[in-house]
């Protein structure tokens, strides 16, 4: 959360902690939940249930066989004091159940799903507190939401079946329920509910891969939500300004890793080369991969990143895109065979590189513009196409056929390094 810069208004680590403690067991120890159990018991909205889990399951199985809703049948709902004492003599411990109304219906307006109705007859007397005194989710969240003054409850639609139970609890305690919004579930590309088998399960795993926090937030916001103009990218505070719950879709969203990758690349391109460099250094330090760039000149690294800026999709891509600036040339075999040593290009490539060794030392202006003029003039003089001049130089200084603009790359490398690499290539492939 902290890496994503999603700050919470209230909670652990955010002073002052107005509604502390925030951990359920600590709140239990203070008697917060027991207080409201006592109130519900006193008012007749709850009761002690001594049925064993096996007995409850038997009740549900009998209901299934009778083609009825598989729920607890309310066996202990009206026990006398004497009956309760008899169960306790048997060594049974009681859970606390909420006494649900058996008729009518519960209705509420959901921001995402509209008007929702549940028949009370389909809902069983659910457990509020376990025999060991630990509150259940449906009970604890009602107490905590009220005491912590929650205005809205936003959660996945797998919780929508809990909502009628919680609303009944709010009403029993004389409290106004919050506004509910149940968001659609997220599916994997195979249409199944998103799970571990679909890839990364932690936000920090995406950080380790080199995703930017803003890109990840942008993408997650678009899962099940859209603007009127179908806008995809939100820079700065525009996402906050445009977001609204009422435009969330009720149908499931699909998590598409390829779209997230595209979006991350767009966010990187939207930043300056200086910003990308700083983000990369932060990423290197956070991932403890300093060895990747040990000995690299940082000024040269900044320049190299600026050249490859448009190609970067993840921060982890950067070393592989720029490492040839800092290491001995690793020649791509296919590039060498195609550009330098093919039957149709070997002689011309040899001539081009030898001419570069003769002429480049006298090239005073090593700007990209001047270098391009030099290369084009050389092509004309030798009677070669521009490609027969440009391509051998690229392979000679980088070992690759792909990369940043040739002449910008030469400028960043500097005259001395360019000449050194051309000489090395000539010695390796063209010396008899």
Please provide a brief summary of the model.
The protein has helices at about 25-30, 30-45, 55-65, 80-90, 135-145, 165-170, 205-210, 215-220, 240, 255-270, 275-285, 300-310, 320, 335-340, 345-360, 370-380, 385-400, 405-415, 415-430, and strands spanning about 45-50, 95-100, 105-110, 115-120, 125-130, 150-155, 180-185, 185, 255. By secondary structure, it is mainly alpha-helical.
Can you walk through the features of this model?
- The chain is mainly α and 432 residues long.
- Helix content is 46%, strand content 9%.
- It is built from 19 helices and nine strands.
- The relative contact order is 0.06.
- The model has no long low-confidence stretch (mean pLDDT 93).
Helix content: 40-55%
Strand-residue proportion: 5-15%
CATH architecture of the largest domain: 3-Layer(aba) Sandwich
- Can you count the beta strands? 9
Distance between the ends: 62 Å
**Largest sheet: spatial strand order:** 1-2-5
What's the CATH class of the largest domain, please?
Answer: Alpha Beta
CATH topology of the largest domain: Rossmann fold
Order of helices and strands: HHEHHEEEEHEHEEHHHEHHHHHHHHHH
What is the overall silhouette? elongated
Give the rounded overall mean pLDDT: 93
Q: Any idea what the radius of gyration is?
A: 34 Å
- Main β-sheet, in a few words? 3 strands, antiparallel
Low-pLDDT runs of 5+ residues are none
Q: So, the CATH homologous superfamily of the largest domain? A: HUPs
For the record, the count of structural domains works out to: 4
Q: Quickly give the structural class.
A: mainly alpha
Please give the count of helices.
Answer: 19
């Amino acid at each position: 959360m902290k890496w994503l810069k999603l700050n919470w208004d209230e909670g652990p680590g955010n002073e002052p902690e107005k509604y502390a403690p925030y951990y359920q067991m600590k709140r239990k120890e203070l008697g917060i939940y027991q207080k409201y159990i006592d109130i519900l018991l006193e008012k007749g909205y709850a009761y002690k249930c001594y049925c064993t889990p096996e007995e409850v399951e038997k009740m549900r199985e009998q209901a299934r066989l009778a083609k009825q809703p598989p729920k607890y049948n309310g066996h202990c709902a009206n026990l006398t004091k004497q009956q309760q004492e008899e169960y306790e003599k048997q060594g049974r411990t009681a859970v606390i159940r909420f006494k649900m109304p058996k008729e009518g219906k519960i209705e509420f307006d959901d921001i995402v799903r509209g008007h929702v109705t549940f028949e009370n007859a389909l809902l069983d007397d659910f457990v509020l507190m376990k025999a060991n005194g630990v509150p259940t989710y449906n009970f604890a969240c009602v107490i905590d939401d009220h005491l912590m003054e929650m205005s809205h409850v936003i959660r996945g639609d797998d919780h929508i079946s809990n909502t009628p139970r919680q609303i009944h609890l709010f009403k029993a305690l004389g409290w106004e329920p919050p506004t509910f919004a149940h968001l659609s579930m997220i599916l994997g590309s195979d249409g199944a509910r998103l799970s571990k088998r679909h890839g990364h399960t932690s936000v920090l795993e995406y950080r380790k891969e080199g995703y930017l926090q803003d890109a990840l937030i942008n993408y997650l916001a678009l899962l099940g939500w859209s603007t009127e103009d179908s806008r995809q990218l939100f820079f700065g505070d525009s996402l906050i300004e445009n977001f609204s719950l009422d435009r969330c879709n009720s149908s499931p969203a699909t998590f598409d890793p390829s779209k997230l990758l595209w979006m991350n690349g767009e966010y990187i391109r939207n930043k300056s080369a200086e910003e990308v460099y700083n983000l990369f250094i932060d990423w290197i330090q956070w991932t403890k991969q300093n060895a990747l760039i040990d000995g690299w000149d940082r000024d040269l690294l900044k320049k190299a990143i600026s050249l490859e800026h448009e190609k970067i999709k993840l921060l982890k891509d950067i070393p592989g895109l720029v490492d040839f600036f800092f290491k001995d040339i690793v020649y791509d075999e296919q590039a060498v065979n195609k550009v330098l040593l093919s039957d149709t290009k070997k002689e011309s490539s040899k001539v081009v590189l030898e001419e570069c060794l003769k002429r480049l030392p006298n090239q005073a202006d090593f700007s990209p513009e001047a270098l391009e003029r030099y290369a084009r003039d050389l092509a004309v003089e030798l009677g070669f196409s521009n490609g027969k001049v440009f391509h051998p130089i690229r392979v000679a200084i980088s070992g690759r056929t792909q990369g940043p603009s040739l002449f910008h790359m030469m400028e960043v490398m500097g005259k001395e390094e360019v000449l050194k690499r051309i000489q090395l290539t000539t010695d390796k492939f063209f010396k008899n």
